[in-house]
Amino acid sequence: MTDQTRTAAEPIIIDKEALKARYREERNKRLRPDGNDQYQRLTGRFAHYAVDPHTPFVERAPKTDHVTFAFIGAGFAGLVTAARLVEAGVSDVRLIDKAGDVGGTWYWNRYPGAQCDTASFVYMPLLEETGHMPTEKYAHGPEILEHCRRIADQYGLYDHALFHTEVTDLTWDDAGSRWAIRTNRGDEFTAQFLGMGTGPLHVAKLPGIPGIDEFAGHSFHTSRWDYAYTGGDHTGAPMSNLADKRVGIIGTGATAVQCVPRLAKACKELYVFQRTPSSVDVRANQPTDPEWFATISEPGWQQRWLENFTLNQTGGLAAEDLVMDGWTDLARRVITKVMSVPAEQFTPEGLMTAFEDSDFEKMEEIRARVDSIVDDAYTAEKLKAWYRQLCKRPCFHDEYLQAYNEPGVALVDTDGKGVERITENGVVAAGTLYELDCIIFASGFEVGTSFTHRAGYDVTGRDGLKLSDYWADGMKSRHGIHAHGFPNLFIVQLTHAANLISNVPHNFTEAGRAIAATVRHAIEGGYDEVEVTKAGEDEWMELLHGGSGLGVAGILGSSECTPGYYNNEGQPGGLGSELLLAYPAGPVAYFEYLKRWCSTGDFEGLEFR
To answer: I need a surface site. Which of 92, 147, 184, 257 has the fewest CB within 10 A?
Structure first.
C-alpha cells in the first residue's frame, strides 16, 4: 500500500496580527448568548425526526432475569467493552440500545458518503481479533456497520441484547449488591455490574429556526436519512428520486462535507446553507492492497498502530509514522516548528508561538486549496475557514469542494448569522426565500448538555444518591470510569482520561481492557462490589486540575475559537467545558498509566468488598 507523502510546506509569510484580528471578527459574528439552547430536541412536535427508519419494531416479552454485566449502548464503547468482558470469562453481557441493532453512530448515520475520517486501521476496533482487513484507508459506513455486527456475532453479544429499548431507571440495590434496571419495554431485570457508553454524540438535535415546523415539503435529519424519499440506499445506489427536486441542506460540518458531493450529483438544485465553513484538507483515500496488509498484520499489529498514531498525533517523537494522514501531518508540522525554536526562546510562551505559527501556515494552505479547486471566486471566498484548524473538528475530503462546481449547486452563506426562518415553501436566508421541495438538517448532536438530558434517565446509587446531583457542579470520577457512591458502575467515555478526540475508539479500547480486568478481579476474588473510594476520586480530580488538565484540548476549546461543540458553543466554563478535562501528561502517558494500573493487580483507588 502506498500512501501519499505529506511534507511541511516552505515557510509562509503571514501578517499574524491581521490574521488574529480576522479570526476574532469571524468569531464574534457567531457568538450567541443562548449557546446550546439555540437547538431543538427531537421531542414533542419534533419527535418524528427521531423515528428509526432502518429496522422494524418487533414486540417482545419483558425481561425479568439477571445478568452479570449490562451495558447501555451498543456502539463501539459497548461492543469493545463487552468483547473484553467475554474474553475475561463473562459470558452473559447484555447490550441495551434504543437502535434496532448494534453499531451506535454507524447504525444511525447511514447518509450517503458516510465514512470514518481517521484511518480504518486505527479507527475500526478489534480488527486483529476478528481477522478483518478494511477495504480502504477510510472505510465507508456500510463496511463499518457490518464490522460492528461481526464483533457482536463473534463474541455472542446478540444472545442477551435488547434493541429498540430505552432505559428509564437505574437503581442500586444495596441489599443485593446489584443494579435494578427498568426500561420502556416493561423490563425489570438486574445486573451485578453496569456499564454506560451513551456518549456525547448520539442525541440528534435540530436548529432552533423560527418556523421549522411550518415547512410543507419533506424534511429529515441526516442521522435518520430517508431513502424512501431520496431513492438509493446507504451502500451507494443513486438517489434517483431527487432528479427533479430542489433540496436544501442546513449545516456544513463533517456530515455535510461527506453527503453534499452525493447530493450534488443527485439533485436538480442543491442549496447548502452555511453559518460557519469547515476546514477541508486532502483525504487521499485509497483501496487497501491485500499484499501490503499481509506484511503489517502480524500478532499485535493493531495495538502497535494505535499507539503509533496516538504518539504521532499528540506530538510525540516517534521513529516512524505508520498512518500518515492529515492528523499526523499537523503534528509533524508542529514538531518541526518547535524543534526550530532557538534555545533562548524555548519557553512555554515560545512553544505556544511555534504551535500558533504552524497552525497559521497550515490554515493558509487549506484556504489556498479552496481557491485552487472552486471555480466561482465568491463561493471560494465564503468556503474559507477563518479560525485555527483545531477549533472545530478538521475535515478531510477530496470531493466536497469540487461539488460547488456542479451547475445545480449553490452555497448560501449567511455570514455567521444562520438561517433566518423556515416558511411553508422553503428557507429564508439574508432576506431571500429559497423555495424547496426538501430540507435536510445536518445539525449534529447534543454536546455540552447534562448527562441526564442526553441519556433520558438518571442513576440512583448508594443511599439514594442521584448521579445528576453528584455531578451538578461538574463531573467527578476516577479515570472517567468510576464515580464514588455508585458501586459496580463503569462509564466509558473520553473525559477525565485520555480525552483523545482524533481517534475516539482508542479511548474505548483501553477503557474496555481496564473494566474487564477490574470485573475479573472482583469475580475471581469473590467480591460483590467494587467502588472508587472518595480519597481515590479526590486524588484523581486534584491531579486533573493540578496540571492544566487540558493540553491541546484546551486550545480546541479556547475562548478565542469560533463557537462549536469543542468550546460549548462559544461559552467556555459551562457543562461543555468538562469535555476538555484530561490527564495532564496527555493520551500516551494516560494509556501507559492505565496499563500499569491494571497489571499491578492493586487497582489503586478502588475498594473491593
So the answer is: 184
First to last CA, the chain: 52
Per the structure block, which three cell numbers stand in for 60? 417482545
Question: Residue 162 pairs with which residues in a beta bridge?
Answer: 96
pLDDT band at 342 (very low <50, low <70, confident <90, very high): confident
What pTM did the predictor assign?
0.92
Tell me the CA distances in angstroms from 415 to 152, 183, 277, 340, one per residue in order.
Answer: 46, 45, 10, 38
Residue that is written with C-alpha cell 437502535 in the block: 99
Query: What whole-number distance in Å separates Cα of residue 129 and Cα of residue 143?
Result: 17
327 and 313 Cβ atoms separated by less than 8 Å: yes
Give per-residue pLDDT as tens, 427-485: 999 999 999 999 999 987 655 555 555 567 899 999 999 999 999 888 999 999 999 99
Residue 177 near residue 488 (C-beta atoms within 8 A): yes
Count Cβ atoms below 10 Å from residue 349 Cβ, excluding itself: 8
| Residues 224-252: b if buried by 16+ CB within 10 A, e if exposed | bbebebbebebeeeebebbeebbbbbbbb
At 44 the three-state DSSP class reads: helix
Q: Which residue has the higher pLDDT, 546 or 5?
A: 546
What is the spatial distance between Cα 221 and Cα 42, in angstroms, rounded to a whole number?
10
Q: Per-residue confidence at 32, pLDDT binned at 50, 70, 90?
A: confident
Residue 462 is placed in which grid cell?
A: 448508594
